[in-house]
Amino acid sequence: LRTFREGADGVLVLGCHFGDCHFINGNHRTAKRVPILQRILEFSGIEPERLRLEWVSASEGERFAQIVDEFTETIQELQPMTQVLS
User: Fold this and answer.
1) How confident is the model at residue 56 (pLDDT cuts 50, 70, 90)?
2) Residues with Cβ < 8 Å from 15, sequence gap 6 or more?
3) What is the rounded CA–CA span in Å between residue 78 and residue 10?
4) Which carries the bigger pLDDT value, residue 5 or residue 84?
């Protein structure tokens, strides 16, 4: 949430596919936390689409690029955070 207060218009969280994570349970915890954070954002008057979680591996370059392009488009369609928070 601090990231939005500091001016980020969006946050894209990318994690390993389940069963493929060096941190073993990190992606499971993240999968539980992101929906909670999205609800908090919405409650705070911030579009939950500004926070997105996707699973992608290092071998999925095209998928990675597609995710980044789609997220960038989504964020560009929204007002800048400076207007949302004012």
Assistant:
1) very high
2) 21, 26, 27, 30, 31, 53, 54, 55, 56
3) 10
4) 5
Query: What single-letter amino acid sits at 34?
Result: V
- CA Rg value for the chain: 14
Residue whose tokens read 């915890």: 29
Q: What is the pTM of this model?
A: 0.89
What does the pLDDT read at residue 38? Answer: 98
d(CA 37, CA 21): 22
Tokens at residue 31, please?
């999968």
| Sequence-distant (≥ 6) Cβ neighbours of residue 21 within 8 angstroms | 15, 27
